[in-house]
Amino acid sequence: PLAALGKHQSRWNYVDVEDVLEVDRGFDESKIPYDVLWLDLEHTDAKRYFTWHPKHFADAGRMLDTLAKSHRKVVTIIDPHIKGDDNYTIFSRLKAADVLIKTAKGADYEGFCWPGDSYYPDFCSPTARKVWAGLFDPAVYPHSRPELYTWNDMNEPSVFNGPEITMQRDNLHKCHTDSFSIEHRDVHNVYGFYHHQASVEGQLARAPHVRPFVLTRSFFAGSHRHGPVWTGDNMAQWEHLARSVPMLLSLSLCGLSFSGADVGGFMGDPPLDLLLRWHQLGIWYPFYRAHAHLTTKRREPWLFGPQATAMVREAVLTRYQLLPMWYTLIAEWALSGKPVLRPVWYHNLGDDAAYAHADDEFFVGEAILVRAITRQTLKAAEVYLPPGRWHDYWDQRAAVQEGGKALTVRPDAGHVPVFVRSGHIIVQKLRPRRSTGAMIGDPYTVVIFGSPARGRVYVDDGKSHEFASGAFVYDELAFDGSSLRLQRAEFAAGGPLQVGAPRSVPAVPGAGL
């Protein structure tokens, strides 16, 4: 869904309904847009998934309704370990269906995780996935609704008292067989994949016409079909900010373009300059989520004073202005396989100089080049510009730079260096709004970098599956110095729309449509 490309706000944990609503008001009062608020373990009844804390989230319906008025969504965590409690409906259903993983001796496997003694569904089994999908039904999961999204964590699976912090290799799965005969060692790497799939199927069963959203920590080849991934528990350290770039580039090249790293670092309290730099880089991650551990200090931007709030606001507004570009890149990845993030050498494998900058620079699509700032004391940054002509994204009046060499820049405190390849068009939406849902009717602005220039834009309803039957617009834009021409585009792998007759409209660089 389009909302998934907006800002995600998370921590372990927002403690109750009033805490959530206060954070929601804080973003509005600070004029910082966001789309999704995340609830970690403590929102449940004693870490029983598919439940709400009977005191702290007794009024969860009011909370969800309030956020929905601003087109905002909520994510709840649903891990695979299920508390062993005969009075817990979810456990009773899974046990009665005989879809729990077995020990080598054939008993239901019991491990230890967040709820205490826990049992693990055999997600490799189609029957288990069907039972799990049924748990998203509002008759089973109170307040379940089409846009209550899901976070699948700890699904390697994590077992605190198991060997290598996971389960025994000789545990038994049924998978597609008639009996529990498949050892865990043979399916360990796909356990998270199938957990992810089962949760997506649950959301689709609950609301067949609404796109699902499920984040997973454990993944496998093909997980990109189900939803986003992230890099796991990181630290609030400059080194972890730096490592996010090669990690996300690796994921993108492996087909997992919809990925991100916890902005600010999950563990520890980041100094303010690190937190600001992480937001400034995080807006260029495909999946942009701020997250923090239970023991950390609160990090909502307004807690750091007016200047820090303004800096985060400007970063987040940049993200929202560029949502048409992000949505187009995600569509091109989903429908033709083009990676969203690309290494600086990606478009010219013969550019030997580019490889030295592979860990601190990256392309967003084919036009935008981002240089990460990952050192606290960095006074001057070297930015390698591949061959061609380059515009400063932040100052379009600045001199155009010739590429094929490194450029030394003084990092601005308010943003990371970003350049746009000359000859490209970036489509934006410039009106500040609370969330993506509030932007639907806003006009598009076409920003032209150099002449002649070309670009593309993809538009659909942002939430349904109608695009699969052709209900979308995918246009190529071409600017020749005096007019802007649009024609229907075709996806690289051969999409359903053919190139049509061009349309021509007057245009000037930076003009809005």
TrEMBL record:
Belongs to the glycosyl hydrolase 31 family. Keywords: Glycoprotein, Glycosidase, Hydrolase, Signal. Residues 337-426 form the Glycosyl hydrolase family 31 C-terminal domain. One of its GO terms (biological process) is carbohydrate metabolic process. The keyword Membrane does not apply. Pfam families: Glyco_hydro_31_2nd, Glyco_hydro_31_3rd. Residues 1-329 form the Glycoside hydrolase family 31 TIM barrel domain. This is Glycoside hydrolase family 31 N-terminal domain-containing protein. GO terms for molecular function: alpha-glucosidase activity. Signal peptide: none annotated. Pathway: Glycan metabolism.
